[in-house]
Predict the structure.
Amino acid sequence: MATCFRLRSFGAPRFPLAPPRHLRPRPGCSGLTARAAPGRAQLRSYARGPAGLSAELLRTDSFVGGRWLPAAATFPVTDPASGATLGMVADCGAAEAHAAVRTAYEAFHSWRGVSAKERSSLLRKWYDLMMQNKDDLAKIITAESGKPLAEAQGEMVYSALFLEWFSEEARRVYGDIIPTSSKDRRALVLKQPLGVASIITPWNFPSAMITRKVGAALAAGCTVVVKPAEDTPFSALALAQLANQAGIPPGVYNVVPCSRAKAKEVGEALCTDPLVSKISFTGSTATGKILLHHAANSVKRVSMELGGLAPFIVFDSANVDQAVKGAMASKFRNAGQTCVCANRFLVQRGIHDSFVKKFAEAMKTNLRVGNGFEEGTTQGPLINEKAVEKVEKHVSDAVSKGATIVTGGKRHQYGRNFFEPTLLSNVTKDMLCSREETFGPLAPVIKFDTEEEAIAIANATDVGLAGYFYSQDPAQIWRVAEKLEVGMVGVNEGMISSVECPFGGVKQSGLGREGSKYGIDEYLEVKYVCYGSV
Ligand code: ADP
C-alpha cells in the first residue's frame, strides 16, 4: 500500500483524498462499509474521483534541508470518517529529528542575516501560494482530520492569514534607545532571533497550528523543525511543498513526521537537543508538562498552548437568541474538538429554561452529522474511537449522577467515530463533564443563581484558556470580564480567534501568546547593549 500511495503521489497528476462514494457510509448503516480499509484497487479508484487534488501537495516523506527524505519505516494515516488508510508516511525517529535540528541550525546562520524585507516577501509568497491552493489544502485537512469541508476551508484561510500577518510583522521588530544616568553612556536594546525552534502541533487544526507558530518564528529570523500530529501530517507536508515553491531557503522549514509510537522519542530529541533554543507546543496539558520537563534541563524558551475548560455563562440580562447563536458557534465547531470550545454552560435561573429549549431546537435544526466531504455536513467524526469513548464516559457519568439528556446522548449510527450532538441539563459541578475537557459534541448545562456563584464555578479549575459570557448589563460586563481567570474572553461573542488578537491561556492552560503583535516576541531575545566612553 505504501508503494501504491507513493507512486501516485509522485507520478499521477491528480490524487483525491476524498473517499469515493461507494466507501462513504450511508446514514442509517452500521458504518461497516466505511470502516473497511480500501485495498489497492479501491485506492486506485480514488485517483479517478471528482475530488482530485494536486499530486504535488501530497507528500509522504520527511522534508529536511529543502529535500524530501524517505525514512526507514512508514506509518499509516487514516481517514477518521471511514477508517480507510489515506497513505503511508515517513516514520522518523530520534536520529532523523537530531539531523533535522542540525540542518535547521546551519540554516539559521544565514536566515537570520536575510533582511527583514526579504523575509517578509518570502512569507508573503508562501501566503499567496496557500491562497492559490486553498481548495486542495482544505481537502487535505478534511481527509485527515474529518472536519466538514466548509470548516476546513475556513481553517485554510485562517492558517494562510498567519503567514500574511507575520510577513507584515517581520518588518516591525523595533529595538529601543534608553536614556541613561551617565553622560558618557548610551543604552540600546536589540531584538534578535532565538535560533532553532522545535514546533510540536496537534491534529485539530492541522494547518493553522503550524502557521501560527512558524509564521512568527520565520518572521523573527528563527528556523524551525515541525513535528506534526501523527493523525494529520499531510497538511504540514503540503505546507513544506509550498514553502519550497515560495523560495523559503533550504533548512528554514523542516518537517519530521512520526507515528504515535515514536512521538515520545522524537519529542524528547526536539526538546533536549542543545542546538534548539525554543520549543513551541500546542496540545494536551499532560504532554505539555512532559515537554516542560525536557526544556528545564537546558533552560530553553517555551510557549505552550494547552487544554482549557471554557465556561460559557448566560446571565438573566442576556439576549437569549444571541446567546444560543454564540453557544452553537462556540460548542460545535470541529465537533467540539477545539481547546476554546465551550465546555461548561452556566445559565442563570431566570433565563435557564428558555435557553435550554432554544439551544436544543437550534441543535436539532442546524446540526447534521456526516462525512466531512458531504454537502451540508456540520459535524464530522471525532478524531478516533478513544475520543468517542471519552464523550460517552462523560455522558454516562453525568446521567448516573442525575443529569438529564435533552437531546442526543449516544454514539451516532453513521459510523464508529461519530457521536450525536448532545445537550445535558441538571448538570452539577462535581460531574466529570464539569471538571474535565470533553473535546467532543457535548454541551452540559449547570443552573446558577448569582453572579458570584457563576464566577466561582467558572474559576474553580486549574486551567484558564477561553471564557464566554452573555449579558446586556455594562457594569456586569466589566466586572465579569475582569474576574474570569482566562487568557481570552468573549463578551456576547462565541467565536473569538483572529490573527490580529493574542491567543493563549493562564494557569495550566499555557505560557506565552500566539498571533497578534505579541506573537513574534516568543521568538525574539532582548539584548541590552551599553555603549560607553561617548
Ligand atoms: P492528543 O491527546 O489530543 O493527541 P497530545 O498532547 O497527546 O494531544 O498531542 C499533541 C502533539 O503532541 C502531537 O503532535 C503528539 O504526537 C505530540 N506528543 C504526544 N506525546 C508526546 C510526547 N511524549 N513527547 C512529545 N510529543 C508528544
About this structure: Residues 7 and 108 are 34 Å apart (CA to CA). The pocket of adenosine-5'-diphosphate is lined by residues 200-202, 227, 229-230, 263-264, 267, 283-284, 287, 290-291 (CB under 6 Å). Confidence is low (pLDDT under 50) at residues 1-50.
